[in-house]
TrEMBL record:
Residues 290-303 have a biased composition (Pro residues). Keywords: DNA-binding. One of its GO terms (cellular component) is nucleus. GO terms for molecular function: DNA-binding transcription factor activity, RNA polymerase II-specific; purine-rich negative regulatory element binding; RNA polymerase II transcription regulatory region sequence-specific DNA binding. This is Uncharacterized protein. Residues 227-249, 272-309 are annotated as: Disordered.
Length: 309
């Protein structure tokens, strides 16, 4: 089924034009927001229809705020994550909407909406989304539940568990979102875990036969006392191993001597142990013929100076 346009709205905001289109294809209904401006290349985000009420709430939230804040907000819509954040530049305050996940293997796409005087442009976006909800209601489409939506007052570390469009669980922890998906290929079954945080995405693949041990490893790791981030796995700070500057040679026979700094050297336990010398010969310059002895006669002199009359 080709994409069919159901409803369209055009917003002119300063030197930009935004196209808001409600469309439908074989996977369902969605809202495409496209930005065309003078200073940025054309970009767009695609919002599944199930995210309509959350977007309205977020527009309402930022519409009633001032300054470059407040802090950014994330909303998970099926297999996508949309990050809302406010900023300010020489052209004024703006609202940035960043889409990640979905069909983006890495990175994502973003819109930059100038807020306008008294956040008038954010208000216009909110009204356009309300028009889409109203049109759906008037045409007999399934109604959109406007009573529930994004919990804007939740703490950053709030933990929620939801279900993605593909049917897999989505675990949200503050601004991080983990998507779990059981897959299969010619090598067998596996569990795909995708972490999405803002515009960053990380992928982890666990073979199906190792999932139980993977869970056990997590449990064992969590039972151990936590270590500071700057501590090495062996304890302490950056311990060295044996070695040092050992080895024969140096500057000819008797130079640095065998053993050099001697084991264990470096920054390892014991550091430079008592009694470790510089090896036989110390720093001697032994070996090899010496330079010219003192008092080597010079060459013939130059011509005598000319006497004056």
């Amino acid at each position: 089924m080709v994409d069919q346009e159901l409803f369209s709205e055009v917003l002119k905001v300063q030197n930009k034009i935004f196209y808001l289109d409600l469309k439908e294809n074989g996977r369902g209904k969605y809202i495409k927001i496209a930005e065309k401006g003078k200073y940025r290349p054309k970009s767009s985000v695609v919002v599944p229809l199930s995210g309509l009420h959350s977007f309205i709430q977020l527009f309402d939230f930022y519409m009633n705020s001032e300054g470059p804040g407040p802090q950014s907000r994330d909303v998970v819509v099926e297999s996508k994550v949309f990050n809302f954040s406010c900023g300010e530049n020489d052209r004024g305050r703006f609202l940035r909407i960043f889409e990640s996940g979905g069909g983006y293997p890495a990175g994502g796409s973003s819109l930059m909406l100038p807020a306008g005087w008294g956040n008038a442009n954010i208000r216009a976006f909110r009204e356009s989304f309300e028009k889409i909800a109203s049109w759906l209601s008037q045409t007999g489409m399934p109604s959109i539940d406007m009573s529930s939506g994004l919990a804007l007052t939740s703490t950053p570390d709030a933990v929620t568990l939801d279900v993605s469009k593909e049917g897999g669980p989505v675990l949200s922890v503050g601004s991080k979102h983990f998507f779990f998906d059981a897959r299969m290929n010619d090598r067998g079954r596996y569990l795909k875990i995708k972490e999405v945080s803002g515009n960053m995405k990380t992928l982890l693949v666990v073979p199906a036969h190792a999932v139980a041990q993977f869970q056990e490893a997590i449990s064992i790791a969590m039972m151990a006392p936590p270590r500071p981030d700057n501590e090495s796995p062996g304890g302490g700070v950056m311990q060295g191993g044996p070695g040092g500057m050992g080895g024969p040679g140096g500057m000819g026979p008797g130079g640095m001597g065998p053993g050099g700094m001697g084991p264990p050297g470096g920054m390892g336990p014991g550091a430079i142990r008592p009694g470790v010398g510089m090896g036989p010969g110390g720093m001697g310059m032994g070996g090899g013929p010496g330079g010219p002895p003192p008092g080597v006669p010079g060459g013939p002199g130059g011509p005598p100076a000319q006497q004056q009359a």
